[in-house]
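Re-running the complex after MR caught last week's input typo. The corrected sequence lines follow. Everything else is unchanged.
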Amino acid sequence: MRTAALIAALALPLPAVAAGERVEITGEVIDTWCYFSGVMGPPDAVTGSAHHTCAMWCAAGGIPVGLRADDGSVYMVMKWEEETGASGSPGILEIQSDLVTATGDLYERDGINYIVVADVVDNSGIVNVNHDEWGVVPPFAIPESAAQ
Amino acid sequence: MIRLTALLAVLAAPGLAEEGRFSAGSEAKAWGVAGEEPARFTGRVVDILCELTGNCVDGCGDGARQMGILRDADGVLVLAAKNSQPAFTGAARELAPFCGQMVEVDGNLVGDTELMPAKFYQVQTIRPLEAEEAVRANRWTKVWAELNPDATGKGPWFRRDASIGAQIALEGYLGLGPETDKAFIDEWFE
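Corrected-run output:
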């Protein structure tokens, strides 16, 4: 059985590994599904404080977290310090919507920027305060019971 | 400028911008989202962190790592971002059981290519090539329920998840603290 497993493992193609480029990125931590799919509105509506709760839902659900830089480029986070990219751990939830500066390794592959974050150099918290403009997105992000 | 750069990147990346190239035979349900195109294709299920960096673990991380499909037809690494449930749930838990296997997937390529050159993938069904039947990519909430037996009560998983609840208790729904939350909520439900 072990021999068969070993043979199967050896038969698998090896990943096309390349060295990443060390970068330092400053940007907002975003929910990439809502941002790119437009499912809940335009990009500006699905960032910041307006979308904070939904961003936590998506991060907890294992949807890729992104780092959106000032120039609009989005980096798909595959690892955040010690947390893996789809873990939905409390550490991943805690940084949602925050403006951070992070260093890490950048891998550009088939039109997508992937980043493996090594260190968070700075975290300014939520700077994109946009709920006055957009409300909460989606509107049911805050249950009515919160008002009681 | 960003949009021009994105457009140039699309044009410079053969295979990424060929709308509908993988739509033939797809039975994917429409979601009505940006750039949506049904896509059925074959490829190998990979752990993206492993694929990019060589940092590999058993079972592709059992759903804790982002997953992709290394498409057979053109070698493109397709990022699987979403499963088939309308419940804020990703694709990693759906694909991890098929780690390293050759599969046929059906779903939608999704994304506004003015924001990012490539689309990512919403996987709806997965069929190992040697299997006759495809499985639906909808196990996320079932796995969550198994992992969170104490999360009782009514409502969807994201209302009952302890980690989310703890973070909301700490920083509020807006993430700006309880005081800001209270002022907004009073007005929001007025």
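None of the earlier attempt is carried over here. The first strand of chain B starts at residue 37 and ends at 47. Residues 85 and 138 of chain B are 6 Å apart (CA to CA).
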